[in-house]
Specification:
- It is a single chain.
- This protein is α+β, with helices and mostly antiparallel strands.
- The chain has two helices and five strands; from the N terminus they run E-H-E-E-H-E-E.
- Helix 1 runs antiparallel to helix 2.
- The longest helix is centred in the first third of the chain and has 22 residues.
């Protein structure tokens, strides 16, 4: 999922802080919904690029353990990604930023 926001050029430290904040928000959400012993793999990648506009990309990959109950993994991933992006909006002080979801590498949903 991508989020673009108008902002001046960010320092490396600011970009790192945004990445840490977004990753923590996504991880905390997933861990609040699924116990750690029911997660086989959880990867969260956050990238912050550019200046005016700044682009934030969040990718969440969740693989449940084989013994995991019936969780709606797709919905959990979407919600974790949305929460991570919302956390970056708060960091930027711009909650009403344009955002779009990458459905796959060839198909994008754009905001209306």
């Amino acid at each position: 999922m991508l989020k673009e926001t108008g902002s001046s050029k960010l320092s490396l430290e600011q970009k790192e802080n945004i990445c840490i904040l977004a990753e923590k928000e996504a991880r905390d959400f997933i861990n609040s919904k699924i116990p750690l012993n029911e997660i086989q793999e959880l990867n969260i990648d956050v990238e912050v690029d550019g200046s005016m506009p700044v682009t934030v990309t969040v990718d969440v990959e969740l693989v449940p353990a084989s013994s995991t109950k019936d969780y709606n993994i797709e919905q959990l991933v979407k919600e974790a990604t949305a929460r991570a992006l919302n956390a970056t909006g708060v960091q930027f002080g711009e909650i009403a930023c344009k955002s779009r979801t990458l459905l796959d590498s060839s198909m994008r949903e754009t905001p209306s």
